[in-house]
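Researcher: First entry.
Model:
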Amino acid sequence: MDNKTMARLLAETADLLEIDGADSFRIRSYRRAADAAEQTTVDLTEAAADTARLMEIDGIGKSMAAHLQSIAQTGTLDQRDQLLKKYGLGVLELLKLPAWARKPWPCSGCGQNRQR
């Protein structure tokens, strides 16, 4: 699996977490990791065998290293899959539309809206 695909899975997870009303710090960590995965010259699939090597990449911490290792091993990310079951694959397609990408999403259970 290439770095761009790994970055896309992390970015989609961040989008789904945002729709789900997750903590903004958690969402940002996924976005930072997605950016890092896309920009690094390190082959993440090869580096996945060594947690320390992944953590040397700016924007990748211990938990994101574990997520990247999971992606390298399985080709998917459990949390993304669970959120896709909850919201459906179509929601990712909607986010590609300019009008939807800027709309505030209702925050699950917190009574606030979050701007993308």
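Researcher: Second entry.
Model:
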Amino acid sequence: MVANRDMREQLRKWVIAKDNPPSIAYVVLSALAAALSYVIARLFHLPEAYWAPMSALMVMQLTLSAAFPIAAQYVVGTAVGAAVGAVIDTCFHTSVSAFGAAIVLVGLLCVALRVERSAFRYASITLVIVMLVPRSTSGGLVALHRFFEVSIGIAAGLVLFAVWQKIDLKFPVKVTGAPLVG
């Protein structure tokens, strides 16, 4: 009984926001960034346009200064993973050994570039998508599409977030003591 209560309390500490709960404005801004990035990706006829809103949502942070490092790591990681995935897929096609070697190569490139671990994580995820997701086109084209889909989402998220922060700084609105953005 005590262990269950302790587990529930620990879970509550992990999940229930104390410092940075989402606000209505943050929810609306996130929805706008996701929808806008999806529309832009569709306008470019990108086959997996759903990556744009996922990327937009990933860079939405409490502050613009917090969003920029994440966005940069995401772009660098995606570029590395897409480039390695395209080359390996073109030269060796998909095999378990080529895939394993490609993950090592991505990791070594990230070590050489001295990027954050999150950039390595994004690079590896992109590599998985380029090399392992079944498709009817070349790995190189999938890699290029993936890079543009992610970049559109990041750009849309950052632009909307920057605009919102300018508006929020000029007209700060508080609802029940909680900041509107955050």
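Model: Note on the second entry: Helices lie at 2-15, 24-43, 51-59, 64-92, 96-113, 117-132, 139-170.
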